[in-house]
Amino acid sequence: MAKNEDFREFVFNECLKQEHGEYNVYFTKVISHYKAKAKYHQEIGELENLVKQIKSLNGGIEPLIFYPRVETIEDENISTNKNGNYFLQEPVGVFQDDYEPLTPIIDPTRPPYSSPGYIVDNGSTLTYYQHITEDYAWENDVWVIGQEEIVSPGNMVAAPETIDMGRTNGEAERGGIIKVLNLNALEHWTSGKLEFRYRVNMASGTLIKNHPFGKTKRKHFRDQKWHDFNNFIANWNISNIGNWMIEGWIEEDGGASTQTITNTFPAPCTGCPTTTISFTKQNKDFDMGVTIIQFTDSKSQEYDMAYSKIKRK
């Protein structure tokens, strides 16, 4: 089907809509749109059967096409105030969960975090093309065949596109400032945007913030640059919140089951109690860890998380 220009245009336009917060289109949408078109009768029949089998095996999660280059085209058209200035070539296909790790195991000559790409030749045979890297996928026509990440509702939408040193008692505290040190270690490029959620607890352990940031473009985190979600946490009154907060992050990927993670922090002073906090995550979510942020810390201080750093303002 992808050999036909009209189908490539359909996939592009559907991915551009970001109906699920990502540049993708569900195969059920493809089937619904083309089912009545005689030109694709055989292909749609086969696709419909495959989707039914896949969903019966994975708990009903939607299989889809993810198209990274749509983000690049969208950004270019916004910056140049143009629309439709693009050419869509026959795509290279990549399977979402088939990729080389940081240290390639199968073939050490392959680039780390790359995925084998395939084309359909004139004999309708799936043929290896080359290994595809993240940079290549965002600049060329690559379709990733995968499945939706079922995350919290606040992370099923696209995030909006969008440092003061000391603290004074009662002033507004804002968080959601993150630098990703290893992008693919948190979310492989075949899975698209990142879905961060952070939570903040008082010194007593009471939860005061549990916030998803929405599906966020990878470009905001490339080259280890800071991205500021500019999220209000609270007016930090020491008498209410305490002398420190506990902040934790996860990158959501969903999953079929849940897990409860418990962290216990030692008493910060003689006679002070220990603090225990618990939170629930889905089994595929990546727990990035927790850190203590003290009222007396400089707001320029950076705190280490898994494959990332965070700070406040």
Summary tags:
4-stranded antiparallel sheet, alpha+beta, 313 residues, 20% helix, elongated
Q: Can you describe what's shown?
A:
It contains seven helices and 16 strands. Helix 2 runs antiparallel to helix 3. The protein starts with a helix and ends with a strand. It has a six-stranded mixed beta sheet with strand order 1-2-6-3-4-5. A four-stranded antiparallel beta sheet has the order 10-7-16-15, with no helix packed on it. The longest helix is centred in the first third of the chain and has 17 residues, at 41-57. By secondary structure, the chain is α+β, with helices and mostly antiparallel strands.
How much beta, percentage-wise? 25-35%
Say how many strands there are.
16
Average pLDDT across residues? 91
What is the H-and-E element order?
HEHHEHEEEHEEHEEEHEEEEEE
Gyration radius over CA: 22 Å
The main pleated sheet reads as: 6 strands, mixed
Helix content: 10-25%
Strand-pairing-aware structural class: alpha+beta
The first-to-last residue Cα distance is 50 Å
Number of distinct helices:
7
Quick gist of this model?
This protein has helices at 5-17, 27-34, 41-57, 69-80, 134-139, 183-186, 238-241, and strands at 24-26, 63-66, 92-95, 115-120, 126-132, 142-147, 172-180, 194-202, 207-216, 226-235, 244-251, 258-265, 275-282, 286-294, 303-305, 308-311. By secondary structure, it is of the alpha+beta class.
